[in-house]
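Before a colleague's protein record goes any further, I have to sign it off. I want your independent view on whether this chain really folds as the tokens say. The record follows directly below this note.
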Amino acid sequence: MEIYLDLENTLLNAQTKMNKEGLSLLKELSSNHPITILTTSPLASIPKEVCFEPIRIVSTLENKMYQNGKEIYDSLKLRAVNKILKSSYLYTAYTIHQQTTYVIRYQERLKFFYPTSTIKSIPKLDFSISFIVLVVAVEGENMVLKTLKNCSLKVLAKDKNRVIFLVTSTPSTKEAWLKKLKKSPAIGIGDSLEDYEFIQHCEIQVAMQNGDQALLDLCPYHTAKSTDENGALQFIQEYLKLQQV
């Protein structure tokens, strides 16, 4: 059976940690079942202890999957993107490549906005990327939509001054990635209502004990323990044992 897990507050606790017992259980389960971890965080921020073969880790921010030491993704076409990067409407833009955040029109006051500690300012893109985040003036919103009409665009935030777009080659959500990867019956576990987008496509739908009440109401299964007590992994272990009886 396949296993799909949210990362934050499901597999990792609020301190983005996993104890030794949880790590041992994760390794044991991964030796017999395909496990995919789904996160909105960049791959560079994932604790190294959970990045082991054969586990797949998907970053919906980067529209990228890490598996067997390799990053797997569909490249964005740079011609249209570079056209946007020349626009006077652009405040800033960034992408991540090999754990470095590459920034166009770097702004020190927005440094907190960039996802990795290593930042490099560049004038344009001339290497393969899986995503780019664009911060543009509201007046440039239609220009972005028209120029990048063949890409997948998601508005991350918008106010009266600017719009923040996530640009990928194909839709990058937990639901989209699960649909692309899933080949057989699966267990899906998460903690937030947003996680139901992928959980609903799994045969065994599970909400964390510490999850949103709305998700608990939607899922027929709940973990007996919280994230701090390795609730997701213990549920999977116990469920699989019952299937063998």
In short: The mean pLDDT is 95.
